[in-house]
Amino acid sequence: MTHPIRLGCIADDFTGATDLANNLVRAGMRVVQTIGVPTEPLNAELGAEVDAVVVALKSRTIPAAQAIAQSLDALHWLQAQGAEQIYFKYCSTFDSTAEGNIGPVTEALMAALNTDFTIATPAFPDNGRTVFKGYLFVGDVLLNESGMQHHPLTPMHDANLVRVLQAQSQGKVGLIDHRCVAQGAQAVLARMAELQAQGVRLAVVDAVSNDDLLRLGPALKHLPLVTAGSGVAIGLPANFGLSANPSASQLPPARGAQAIVSGSCSTATRGQVAHFIASGRPAFALDPLVLARSPEAAAKVVAQVCAWAAPHLASGPVLVYATAEPEAVKAVQAQLGVDAAGALVEHTLADITRGLLALGVRQWVVAGGETSGACVQALDITQLHIGPQIDPGVPWCHAHTPVGPVHLTLKSGNFGSPDFFTKALAQLQH
Ligand code: ADP
Q1: pLDDT per residue as tens digits for the range 114-163
Q2: Domains and their CATH numbers in the chain
Q3: Which of the listed residues 287, 289, 370, 409 should we mutate to test ligand 1's pocket, taking the one with most ligand atoms within 8 A of CB?
Q4: Rounded to the nearest 5 degrees, what angle is found at the Cα of 22, between the Cα atoms of 91 and 412?
Q5: How far is the CA of 287 from the centre of ligand 1 (A)?
Q6: Residue 1 confidence (pLDDT)
Q7: Whether the Cβ atoms of residue 22 and residue 393 lie closer than 8 Å to each other
Q8: What pTM did the predictor assign?
Q9: Atom number, ligand 1, closest to the C-alpha of residue 269
Q10: Does 101 sit behind a cis peptide bond, omega within 30 degrees of 0 on the bond before it?
Q11: Closest residue CA from atom 5 of ligand 1
């Protein structure tokens, strides 16, 4: 019998969920991340003593009605696990369309939780996201000057979060500004009461440092719902009597062969692939144009990769990668189409992942957000137990597959140091 969880989290995308889970673990919570809303209770082995569960949705840019339905499903599952408080996690750049989904999902969760007040703040000072007077800064510039104004799906043209959130909410939006936060939790609680008396239902909260977030934490203790980026998470475990401790991130010992699967073409990943190859370890490059010739040709490549990897696996990690320079990616996309090229590479890497699992690989480094989704699905993984951080935002995880337990780390494109692949696998041995 698993014990009830304390904090139930709903994240609007996969790598954002991991980011939140990582912060909770570092602040002392034992955390499981689920891929989508589970259809059953927590895996008894993973969830025996878990303080928080993060349900990873893919709801950031889908129609608001669907985002609401999925978020409410997640809420009901988390409530069934005993969650005492709900945390709706969105991106630290407040990624949303003019229609939502941050406002609509927040208000649907408030209604379901029967609460008429919550907060909203994407502040994550460790990552350069700060909120001052309601304005969101990314590094040294306002959100709408940070490049986010050009985002293909969620262009952000206004850095004033009170305005942005008001435009997508029915209820009144207010501000708890930095002067108040700086005075501590009592002042924040008094301001919350004041705003509620004025009919405000959603309060954007300023925070420019981790100290601000830690001061804010105690003021959130009695809110049924908190909405935020991953930053606010550092101040919540203390409300449940938990503090940073190494056992929160402890995973079972790793065993089995090691592999790195990379479908990310981001700058950081390209450096990591080059670094690994330069270290002299075996690496196999996939050519999307060969894969595109026919399904048989792609299947042949998968068999080739497995035959190539088998003798190497006994002596250390192998790398299989589709990672390529921007010009090469553009050339492939011009011939195959952007979506078709992406899907073809993802399917092939998923097939290779299954092949390597059959060869005894039990320790995985996966590079790429979409690639991670494909590989996790290939491994038939639905729940991840979150372990120690390797680099900011990227923890080791432990999970069950149909053939037994595996360790894996899912690295989104631009995360991690140049030696991330070897560093991660070496860390797991200790
Ligand atoms: P990131 O986290 O860096 O954005 P993703 O895995 O999310 O990485 O996205 C990379 C996308 O590029 C995937 O859909 C992947 O299949 C695709 N891809 C990988 N290598 C190539 C390539 N050589 N040519 C074209 N597309 C590629």
Answers
A1: 999 999 999 999 989 999 999 999 999 999 999 888 887 889 999 999 99
A2: 7-244 (3.40.50.10840), 250-429 (3.40.980.20)
A3: 370
A4: 60
A5: 12
A6: 45
A7: yes
A8: 0.92
A9: 3
A10: yes
A11: 368
**Cα separation of 247 and 8, whole Å?**
20
Position 43, amino acid: N
pLDDT reported for residue 50: 94
Task: Give the distance (Å) from ligand 1 centre to CA of residue 264.
Answer: 5
- Give how far the C-alpha of residue 36 lies from the chain's centroid of Cα atoms, to the nearest Å: 12
Which residues are bridge partners to 242 per DSSP? none
Cβ-contact 23, 17 below 8 angstroms:
no
Cα 291 to averaged position of ligand 1 atoms, centre (Å): 14
Quick check: 189 and 223 in contact, CB under 8 A? no
> Which residue's CA is the nearest one to ligand 1's atom 20?
322
Residue bearing tokens 């372990």: 387
123 to 139, 232, 388: CA distances (angstroms): 11, 7, 23
